[in-house]
Amino acid sequence: MASKTFLSKFFLSFYRSLRSNWPLLSLHRSSTKDHHRQQQQQLKPRLSDSIGGKSLVVVGVEGGLLRSSSTFCYFMLVALEAGSIPRGLLLLLLYPLLCCLTREAAIQVMALVSFVGIKEEKFRAGRAVLPKFFLEEMRSEWSEVLDEAKLKVMCVSQMPRVMIEGFLKEYLEVETVVARELKVFAGYYTGFMEEEEGAGYHDGVSLSEKMIMAAPHHLLSQCKELQLVRGAEKRKWRPVPPPRVAAGAFPNPLVFHDGRMAFLPTPSATLAMFLWLPFALPLLLLRFLIFLCLPYCISVPLGAATGMINRLVRLPSAGSSGGGRLYVCNHRTLLDPIYVSGALNRAVVAVTYSVSPVSEALSPIKTARLARDKEEDRRRMGRILGRGDDLVVCPEGTTCREPYLLRFSPLFAELAEEVVPVALEAWVTMFYGTTASGFKCLDPFYFLANPWPQYEVEFLPAVATGAMVREGRSSCEVANLVQGQIGAALGFRCTALTRKDKYMMLAGNDGVAVRHQKKKLQRS
């Protein structure tokens, strides 16, 4: 009898503890009403000075900035993108345990699993991967409110600084970020976070006016006014539509981002991904063999039967010259020339720039590597066109996932009497088929591993580049004209950004393969 009483009391105590902690540790946590009321009674305004004559708003990232208080999905992104698939699987398996811990303990465990053993100087997910997902999870009214109020902003986060600081300062122009540092040993993250030190986070910064949060923090006691965001209120927040993320709804638009994950890895979505992987491997091999071994008249319908969605908007008009035709397209994935070839239903030659030798060897169409020398590249492409082969060129030099076109290299305008612009668009549901810092030889396989990869090909009217050059237009003007036509067809914005800009931001290098750098040194 005594044992039954003990067990009943034990389970009752455990149940009450679980219920009290669950809002603090689940993916949609919020503090209880009594705790909020107690915190508000303890608040005492300490500082009333403003900075530069403007008010300072202290915003909790998880509670006042993002629509969800969850941090699991962002740690999962770090585990998968900066770590490995087994690391991500371990974090997913620990999710039930995280739901039985306090919020602070859960974040400590997630940080440990996600960061331990990762080299500090090579960690770029905070700038290259996470901002895209943070922007998409922000409430749509946030940027408008701050722009109208002209407030200075300090953001407070329970995530490590290395995860959140790049996004807040580069895309939202937040002046101060209050977050904890990760401990480093011998150049590697240990996974442990530094202890909170209160004012040590914000030396020289006065907190004066407001704080918008959904959970208590040590900075609350230094604010004059507190606005608590409750769960019911957050559920009414509207997400930022994806086009606005890229089109400049925030101080700095999102143009480049890296990583393989095309979805926010919530626990359910991550579980679905791991359940899909055993089917994805044989499926991508089947799709690859179909396009490698079979003619287009057979491979395209078979590919559609496996879930690939292809759409041809318009075929090109007949060419006027007797030689090969030059097709100029924007660059979405490494498979662009193959899709152009499939749409034409005939073989083409694709020029490559800093492409993996593995990708070249496995390509179902002929490739011609550029030498990164203008005169030599002109001769090589001229020979291909002279012998009657069709040539596909991607003058951007690198891929861009967002609705932007990078600067077009003008060399193609000097090669043929006319060029055919080709507007390409690609959509994925699970994995991106491009990367700036990962293994490029795996790009086509990641694209083919998606359940329903989609491509759209549209051939635009031919542009008489030869006549334009003879009329006195420069090759740069012709290249900008072709870029504008493709951008108008796709609804993309044209930019002057280059391959170097992309790789310096995402990978910390100029995007030139090591073998090219060695050749350049040998020549000098």
UniProtKB/TrEMBL annotation:
<dbReference type="GO" id="GO:0016791">
    <property type="term" value="F:phosphatase activity"/>
</dbReference>
<dbReference type="InterPro" id="IPR056462">
    <property type="entry name" value="HAD_RAM2/GPAT1-8"/>
</dbReference>
<dbReference type="GO" id="GO:0010143">
    <property type="term" value="P:cutin biosynthetic process"/>
</dbReference>
<dbReference type="Pfam" id="PF23270">
    <property type="entry name" value="HAD_RAM2_N"/>
</dbReference>
<dbReference type="Pfam" id="PF01553">
    <property type="entry name" value="Acyltransferase"/>
</dbReference>
<keyword id="KW-0812">Transmembrane</keyword>
<dbReference type="InterPro" id="IPR002123">
    <property type="entry name" value="Plipid/glycerol_acylTrfase"/>
</dbReference>
<comment type="similarity">
    <text>Belongs to the GPAT/DAPAT family.</text>
</comment>
<feature type="transmembrane region" description="Helical">
    <location>
        <begin position="285"/>
        <end position="305"/>
    </location>
</feature>
<dbReference type="GO" id="GO:0090447">
    <property type="term" value="F:glycerol-3-phosphate 2-O-acyltransferase activity"/>
</dbReference>
<keyword id="KW-0808">Transferase</keyword>
<dbReference type="GO" id="GO:0016020">
    <property type="term" value="C:membrane"/>
</dbReference>
<protein>
    <recommendedName>
        <fullName>Phospholipid/glycerol acyltransferase domain-containing protein</fullName>
    </recommendedName>
</protein>
<keyword id="KW-0472">Membrane</keyword>
<feature type="domain" description="Phospholipid/glycerol acyltransferase">
    <location>
        <begin position="325"/>
        <end position="427"/>
    </location>
</feature>
<keyword id="KW-1133">Transmembrane helix</keyword>
